[in-house]
Design a protein that fits this description.
It holds the Pfam family Amidase. It comes from Knufia peltigerae. One of its GO terms (cellular component) is mitochondrion. GO terms for molecular function: ATP binding; glutaminyl-tRNA synthase (glutamine-hydrolyzing) activity. Its main location: mitochondrion. It is a single chain. By secondary structure, the chain is of the alpha/beta class. The chain has a domain of 203 residues: Amidase signature (AS) enzymes (Alpha-Beta Complex), CATH 3.90.1300.10. 36% of the residues lie in helices and 10% in strands. It has 18 helices and 10 strands. The protein has a 10-stranded mixed β-sheet with strand order 2-1-3-5-4-9-10-8-6-7, with helices on both faces. Helix 10 links the parallel strand 6 and strand 7. The longest helix has 21 residues. It is globular. Bound molecules: glutamine. Glutamine binds next to strand 3.
């Protein structure tokens, strides 16, 4: 059957979800341990998770919502699933998504579209887009089926669903959470992300997942993590007027001991998420984000957020990130290029259940076998991305597309580095930029959630525009969180007017991004 959550089924019998997976893991014992460990008193808090179907779990097939992988039960599990299980979190279900993560509305799926509201009706229904591509995980959280949704964010796939459904969606810095067992879409951009109803819930689960992993070479090692702590330390010391800065960022041997992000094991009762109150904060407002296409309600919410922050004692500073206007085009060259290479292995021979269906007379001719399988089983958006990516990597087009896009990506990174107070721990420059900002606050999406009936008929380009505010942080690998924005008092609250505000921090400043979002937004 369909491994994804069927909302009506779940609402009829919420217990059914817990049955196999959770009981097999000794749900009752784990629940108790987890609650004791985190000092959680209330029932049903912080320990049920749903997992996007591009992350491998031991019990259920992993299909990336693609016909090419129908019924595929991978031989190994993901580090994420492993850590969640060991952390006492109970995995309830795999969730629907855009095929291989390609999309912004969770409608490009072999299992049918995810939708928020009624699809049928006289005017074609009132269902709204849940955002994408982690829309299934986010909807499960919005519908109170799980406390935390695990997804992936390559160019906004956690933040956009969070914005569209008034949830909290967090994309950590690139490399903080292991990608072992996460099916790659665009390796240099892919991050595991989390969606929940509060920053605390996100933090509880992120704390379990942010671990080094030898099985993923792009997952930050312990020594790189202490280098990152050094950079946050340098920034904090500069803020406090401390002249003795740990300018050598090579490791704990040459300077004062790096402060640990969380002293010992985190325990919210004894160590509540430390407050960021009282620390001077400078908030950057990039002028290039104030685009003409921005919906008035989004602009209003952005301004309301900034004036609220100002009242809370933050300094609001206009900044310029000039490469922003090219970031989206760069992303839509780079992501399909990496994807076209990643997806080459789905040839109908190696993965999935349906692979034997196509072995017939043509089998002697491998090319026909592959192309028929791929033509029949990849959805139209995935095929479009493969064509785009293959083209931009081809000898004749490489210089004009792929290389240019890489250059823009580097400029986007340099733009961010030039405005942040904290030095980027991945670069050699260790100087604290005294005039710099600590965070950037911008909307998550240019509009509130669109109606599904419009989204279905949108051109690919119109769909790509939804990602205009999320891809810059992805290209630079920065931590970014989307939280529900203030609501205009003249508009009674309806799901149609949901707006998300995004807080972006310097690379490795994840903990402060979470603290700031928790305290001030
Ligand atoms: N909408 C973007 C895309 O289609 C982002 C997807 C993602 O982050 N996985 O590529």
């Amino acid at each position: 059957g369909n491994p994804f959550i069927s909302l009506s089924q779940v609402l009829r019998d919420p217990e059914s979800l817990l049955l196999d997976t959770a009981k097999a893991h000794g749900a009752h014992k784990l629940t108790k341990d987890f609650k004791n460990y985190y000092g959680i008193k209330s029932a049903n808090h912080g320990y049920t998770v749903v997992i996007k179907d591009n992350i491998v779990t031991p019990e259920l097939p992993t299909t990336c919502a693609s016909n090419t992988l129908k019924g595929f039960l991978p031989p190994q599990t993901s580090t994420v699933a492993d850590l969640l299980r060991r952390g006492g979190q109970i995995m309830l279900a795999k969730t629907n998504m855009d095929e291989f993560g390609m999309g912004s509305h969770s409608i490009n799926s072999a299992y049918g579209e995810v939708h928020n509201g009624t699809v049928d009706g006289p005017q074609g229904g009132t269902a709204l887009s849940v955002g994408g591509s982690s829309g299934g995980s986010a909807l499960a959280v919005a519908a109170n089926l799980a406390n935390v949704g695990i997804g992936t964010d390559t160019g906004g796939s956690i933040r956009l669903p969070a914005a569209y459904m008034s949830l909290v969606g967090f994309k950590p810095s690139y490399g903080m959470i292991s990608r072992k067992g996460v099916v790659p879409y665009a390796n240099s951009l892919d991050t595991v992300g989390l969606v929940a109803k509060s920053v605390q819930d996100v933090w509880l689960t992120y704390d379990i997942l942010k671990k080094p992993d030898d099985n993923d070479p792009t997952c930050l090692s312990s020594s790189s993590r202490s280098r990152v702590h050094y950079a946050t330390y340098a920034r904090d010391a500069a803020l406090q007027g401390n002249k003795i800065l740990p300018v050598i960022l090579n490791g704990p041997r040459f300077g004062p001991a790096a402060p640990t992000e969380t002293p010992g094991r985190y325990h919210p009762r004894r160590h509540p998420l430390p407050t960021s109150k009282g620390v001077p904060k400078r908030i950057g407002v990039p002028l290039e984000y104030n685009i003409q296409e921005m919906h008035p309600l989004v602009r209003w919410s952005w301004m309301a957020t900034l004036s609220h922050l100002e009242k809370a004692g933050c300094e609001i500073v206009p900044i310029s990130l000039p490469s922003t206007k090219h970031a989206l085009s760069s992303y839509y060259i780079l992501a399909p290029a990496e994807a076209s290479s990643n997806l080459a292995k789905y040839d109908g021979v190696r993965y999935g259940n349906s692979r034997h269906d196509h072995v017939d007379d043509d089998a002697a001719n491998g090319t026909t076998l592959y192309s028929r399988f791929r033509g029949q089983n990849f959805g139209p958006e995935v095929q479009r991305r493969i064509l785009l990516g293959t083209f931009s990597l081809s000898a004749g087009a490489m210089d004009n597309y792929f290389i240019q896009a890489q250059k823009i990506r580097r400029m986007v990174q340099q733009d961010f580095d030039s405005v942040f107070r904290m030095p980027n721990p991945l670069r050699d420059n260790t100087k604290v930029n005294k005039q710099g900002v600590d965070f950037i606050v911008v909307p998550t999406a240019p509009t509130p959630p669109p109606r599904l009936k419009y989204v279905r008929n949108a051109t690919p380009l119109e769909s790509y525009i939804n990602d205009v505010f999320t891809v810059p942080a992805s290209l630079a690998g920065l931590p970014a969180i989307s939280v529900p924005g203030p609501r205009h008092p003249d508009y009674p609250w309806r799901p149609e007017v949901a707006v998300g505000m995004q807080l972006i921090g310097q690379y490795g400043d994840d903990f402060n991004v979470l603290k700031m979002a928790n305290d001030e937004l």
